[in-house]
Design a protein that fits this description.
about 160 residues; alpha/beta; Rossmann fold; 4-stranded parallel β-sheet; 5 helices
Length: about 160
């Protein structure tokens, strides 16, 4: 389901949304925690970025951070970044949060796909909660948790001898 690693024994995943303050950083924090719990963190690089540069250097949206914190995740280290064209070559897998983000990355390919292509509840967009209420951030976290479980399992399989 995911492409093989470019370097044996290592895997690199990039998570991309529009501004890198809501969806992709939530996925980044959850994925890093789940990889740590699975004993894979030392072999997997995870990064997130936005296709727009509006928020570069800023922390996560306070509502996203509060949602993560309420569920036992540490959102404090995140600072927004901007994706660059080299990301497509630097990462084994680039996961976009919605079709617009995917288009901004140049479209889908073997190594570039939608995050929810791995969601056991079915593919689709991770909706942008920025203009909504707190329940939108809870919805995003639920999607991220489901999809991350599959992603960790897939990465573990890709790194198995």
């Amino acid at each position: 389901m995911i492409p093989p690693p470019r370097r044996p024994g290592r895997y690199a995943v990039a998570l991309v949304c529009l501004g890198n303050i809501c969806r992709s950083p939530m996925a980044d924090v959850v994925l890093q925690q789940r990889l740590l719990e699975a004993g894979l963190a030392d072999r997997v690089t995870v990064a997130s970025a936005g296709t727009a540069d509006w928020h570069v250097g800023k922390p996560m949206d306070p509502r996203a951070a509060a949602t993560l914190d309420a569920h036992g995740f540490d959102p404090t280290r995140h600072r927004a970044r901007h994706s660059t064209p080299t990301w497509l070559a630097d990462f084994d897998l680039v996961l976009a949060m919605d079709a617009d983000n995917l288009a901004d990355l140049g479209g889908g390919s073997e190594r570039v796909m939608l995050f929810r292509d791995l969601d056991p509840d079915g593919p689709g967009a991770v909706p942008d909660p920025y203009y909504g209420g707190d329940d939108g951030f809870e919805e995003v976290l639920a999607m991220v948790e489901r999809t991350t479980a599959v992603l960790v399992r897939e990465i573990g399989g890709a790194l198995a001898p």
